[in-house]
Design a protein that fits this description.
This protein has strands at about 5-10, 25, 30-35, 45, 50-55, 60-65, 75-85, 90-105, 105-115, 120-125, 130-135, 150-160, 165-170, 180-185. It is mostly beta strands and about 190 residues long. It has a single domain, classed as Jelly Rolls.
Length: about 190
């Protein structure tokens, strides 16, 4: 089990309408990160003001025994707040996220989503090997129609449960990542 750099890639795709061809949902700064898996200096991001945001982590993994993890822990967590700009007359209608990585032994990947202060869905899975976990979320409106910036909050954690076990969101080949797709729709 080698220590790797992890990444989270967010991709937002807005449903564009003929009368609003320039309308676009974007991720914007300032973004806030907190947790044992994303301490200051252990992550970086790029893509502010675009529909694609990339976040690179250096210690967002877990292992049992814990000395096999870059984080040195059996459980690590990362909570982040990403401001999402929504054009006036539109609302966020759906979000799909794909979590990809590697796990061996008995492990757990936890995700919980909040939009604009509203409690959202959560998922807890036990991935094995090279995994992809897909969350189909928010098949309902999570924002008003006035437009503006809405905070998207994501709480996540990885946990190595039994000995030996290891889990990470791995980016060694740049194919393993977390991808978030946002879609908007015209307000009714």
């Amino acid at each position: 089990m080698k220590k790797t750099v992890q990444a989270v890639v967010f991709s937002a795709a807005a449903a564009l309408f003929a009368s609003q061809a320039g309308a676009q949902v974007t991720f914007n700064a300032p973004m806030q990160f907190a947790g044992t898996g994303c301490k200051p200096g252990e992550y970086s991001f790029s893509g502010d003001g675009t529909d694609t945001l990339t976040v690179l982590f250096s210690a967002y993994d877990a292992s049992n025994p814990q000395d096999n993890a870059a984080s040195g822990m059996r459980r690590t967590a990362c909570s982040f707040v990403v401001p999402v700009k929504v054009p006036a007359g539109f609302q966020v209608s759906t979000m799909t996220s794909d979590w990809r990585g590697y796990a061996e032994g008995r492990t757990e990947l936890f995700r919980e989503y909040f939009f604009a202060g509203q409690r959202g869905p959560q998922a807890r899975t036990n991935p094995k090997g090279n995994y992809t976990e897909r969350d189909n979320l928010m098949n309902a409106t999570w924002s008003g129609c006035k437009g503006g910036t809405i905070p998207l909050r994501i709480n996540s954690s990885v946990r190595a449960i039994s000995k030996p076990s290891y889990i990470a969101v791995d980016t060694v080949d740049l194919k393993n990542k977390v991808v978030f797709h946002l879609q908007s729709r015209r307000c009714r």
